[in-house]
């Protein structure tokens, strides 16, 4: 039995090593045979392809069977993972507003600017009006800060009132499109944006305090403030639209003189 097995083994090996074939030639032929029966897909190929797909390595594309296993492009994230998305959207909206006006703002374009799926935008702003309300609110908050700083540098009463009025003009000149949104058609007609109304009142309160400092009767301060701000906004808007032709170098002094005349007439 052992002899039979030995003969069978000899028969299998004999074609590889024959007396007629040199040893080096036999080795070459054996290597070619092993290459011919090598698996089409090796474990190494599968491992490399897996790492490529995960982005761990970046090997050249490999042919695996009849298909190519290449790294897939990363999916676009549906969520914003780099900070506060509402604030990022407001920043993007302000950039578009300042550059091209309110007509250039769309929720889909802002989603693209922020690098998120448009569905993520609607979670924070259900429509364009709600977004514009937040943009206007931020504008009034910025204006209020500037008005308060300017008024605080002057004595109470008319000096503080004039300083705040000039700052009102400078803000409008620096942010014309934002100013037009803030002072244009009323956004909060349905009362759905109380934070916007609060920001407006906070800014206009600076003028009310200014009139109160002039010694005006308290019961007419609010009325006079409303008249003054309406007149001031009209003058500033006409300058921005260039219906009042005022040289840029003289605009600040022009607004100062107008404000003094308005205060004198209202008092």
Describe this structure in words.
The protein has three domains: 20-74, no CATH class; 82-126, Arc Repressor Mutant, subunit A (Orthogonal Bundle), CATH 1.10.10; 137-266, Tetracycline Repressor, domain 2, CATH 1.10.357. The chain is elongated and about 110 Å long. It is mostly helical and 267 residues long. A two-stranded antiparallel sheet has the order 1-2. Mean pLDDT is 79; it is low at 1-19, 37-44 and 61-80. α7 runs parallel beside α10 (194-212) and α11 (221-240) runs antiparallel to α12 (248-266). The protein has helices spanning 2-13, 23-36, 43-53, 85-100, 107-114, 118-122, 128-152, 158-174, 176-183, 194-212, 221-240, 248-266; strands at 62-64, 67-69. It contains twelve helices and two strands, in the order αααββααααααααα. A hairpin with a 2-residue loop joins β1 and β2 (67-69).
CATH top-level class of the largest domain: Mainly Alpha
Largest sheet: 2 strands, antiparallel
Radius of gyration: 39 Å
Number of domains: 3
Q: How much of the polypeptide forms β-strand, as a percent range?
A: under 5%
CATH architecture of the largest domain: Orthogonal Bundle
CATH superfamily of the largest domain: Tetracycline Repressor, domain 2
Instruction: Trace the largest sheet across and list its strands.
Output: 1-2
- Cα separation of the termini: 129 Å
| Helix/strand class | mainly alpha
Low-confidence regions: 1-19, 37-44, 61-80
Tally of DSSP helical segments:
12
> What would you call the shape?
elongated
| Helix/strand order | HHHEEHHHHHHHHH
Q: Could you tell me the number of beta strands?
A: 2
Helix content: 55-70%
């Amino acid at each position: 039995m052992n002899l039979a097995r030995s003969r069978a083994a000899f028969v299998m090996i004999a074609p590889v090593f024959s007396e007629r074939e040199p040893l080096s030639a036999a080795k070459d032929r054996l290597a070619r045979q092993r290459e011919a029966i090598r698996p089409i897909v090796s474990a190494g190929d599968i491992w490399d392809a897996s790492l490529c797909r995960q982005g761990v390595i970046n090997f050249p594309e490999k042919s695996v069977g009849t298909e190519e296993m290449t790294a897939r492009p990363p999916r676009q994230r549906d969520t914003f993972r780099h900070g506060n998305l509402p604030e990022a959207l407001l920043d993007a909206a302000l950039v578009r507003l300042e550059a091209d006006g309110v007509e250039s703002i769309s929720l889909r374009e802002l989603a693209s600017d922020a690098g998120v799926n448009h569905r993520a935008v609607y979670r924070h702003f259900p429509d364009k009006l709600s977004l514009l309300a937040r943009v206007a609110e931020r504008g009034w908050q910025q204006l209020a800060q500037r008005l308060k700083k300017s008024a605080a540098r002057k004595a109470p009463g008319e000096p503080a009132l004039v300083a705040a009025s000039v700052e009102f003009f400078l803000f409008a000149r620096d942010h014309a499109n934002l100013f037009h949104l803030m002072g244009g058609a009323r956004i909060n007609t349905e009362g759905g944006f109380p934070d916007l109304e609060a920001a407006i009142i906070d800014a206009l309160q600076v003028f009310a305090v200014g009139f109160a400092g002039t010694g005006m009767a308290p019961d007419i301060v609010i009325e006079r403030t409303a008249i003054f701000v309406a007149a001031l906004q009209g003058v500033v808007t006409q300058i921005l639209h260039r219906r009042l032709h005022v040289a840029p170098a003289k605009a600040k002094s022009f607004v100062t003189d107008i404000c003094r005349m308005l205060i004198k007439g209202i008092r």
